[in-house]
Amino acid sequence: QVQLVESGGGLVQPGGSLRLSCAASGSISSINAMSWYRQAPGKQRELVAQITSDGSVTNYADSVKGRFTISRDNAKRAVYLQMNSLKSEDTAVYYCNVVARTSSTIFRNYWGQGTQVTVSS
């Protein structure tokens, strides 16, 4: 099994910054893409940012381009989301997603438990 533990959420004022972290653990043999999603109240979950296995390619939702940066540390099996110039519309629960293979399974999607980000004055 793969466990994902997220941290770094909280309350921040508009224009502020937060850094989310997600660490993967378990009997992991390989990690492919790592991503961050978010879900605001009454809305569908949406992809925020994604990074390839070697970190060479990243993709962002148009709404966060230029403000958010995704990165990963393969040695730590971790993915990060640096969020700058936060806006009230960034308020949501943020979820870490990992495509990973274990010693007993093929590549599958795994989700973290979510961390709340609230942008408010």
Defining key terms:
single chain; 0% helix; elongated; 4-stranded antiparallel β-sheet
Beta content comes to over 45%
> How would you characterize the largest beta sheet?
7 strands, mixed
Arithmetic mean pLDDT: 96
Gap between N and C termini, in Å? 40 Å
- Helices and strands, in N-to-C order? EEEEEEEEEEE
- Whole-angstrom Rg: 14 Å
Look at the helices and sheets and give the structural class. Answer: mainly beta
Note the total helix count: 0
In which range does the helix fraction lie? under 10%
Low-pLDDT windows of residues: none
Which geometry do the CA atoms define? elongated
Please give the number of β-strands. 11
Structural notes for this entry:
With 121 residues, this protein is mostly beta strands. It has strands at residues 2-7, 10-12, 18-26, 28-39, 46-51, 58-60, 68-73, 78-83, 92-102, 108-111, 115-119. The strands form two sheets. Strands 2, 4, 5, 6, 9, 10 and 11 form a seven-stranded mixed beta sheet that branches. A hairpin with a 5-residue loop joins strand 9 and strand 10. The protein starts with a strand and ends with a strand. The mean pLDDT is 96.
